[in-house]
């Protein structure tokens, strides 16, 4: 079992959700009000330099640990328990059917036996976890069980990072699971509480854009594409001759030449919309489906001016940029304007913070 507590465990004590991507560290802490609604207690972000995290691997451990320390300090939180996540590419997940009525110990034995068939490493080299999803729809009296396994060194990297920053890792999740959990709240706000709706969730990262197609909280399709916000920085470098660091800084601050919106931003937004259109076409040609009901855009680059409109024009499907804090009360310590501007980047960290309240 994963040594730092169950992947799916319930955490009632205060918990930080910390998402580490190739470009930044995002922190969210949630509470509950008297009526049971979510309260955004804290959120903070710290940028990472290029090359510190590559393909989900921590290449500059000390520098990233310092960035985690800084983001906790910036947030003002004194909470030590933390939920972190591994990229989906570092985790093997498999849904299996097992007999109902087994004890936890019997389940564990069965899971280890089944896992041997699906995991291309020795079980000694992996951290393995599982949870019972519910009664099996395909086999009466049996249960669906979700297995998750990752190489031990990947788990230990995240655990070590938290500990180096003075935190206590208690939950290790999968990034796509966490983002899906946070998106689930927003899907429930769609017409008919989202029942039966097909939702395409695009998370536009720095280097990679991931697509999950979700219906009734189940994932029908997942795919990653190699494009992201870093390409906008490269275009700024080429157009204006800035250094990569300058381009990144000016992109965030908005201090760019007058022709930036027309010469660089608009063509980039159109190319992102085309990539999203292509990703959906690939989904339609490789599955029995031919439409989605709604497109959600998340990630740091999703809030680019005009992107949601360009995607609607490209695909003819309804599209919106997500705010994972929608409908939440907000603590006075949170800077509302900054939070609203950066909200789409916090989807995964918000899902991690929600782990505190899972039964």
TrEMBL record:
Residues 15-183 form the SHS2 domain. CDD domains: ASKHA_NBD_PilM. SUPFAM superfamilies: Actin-like ATPase domain. InterPro entries: ATPase_NBD, FtsA/MreB, PilM, SHS2_FtsA. SMART domains: FtsA. It holds the Pfam family PilM_2. It comes from the Bacteria. This is Pilus assembly protein PilM. It comes from Curvibacter cyanobacteriorum.
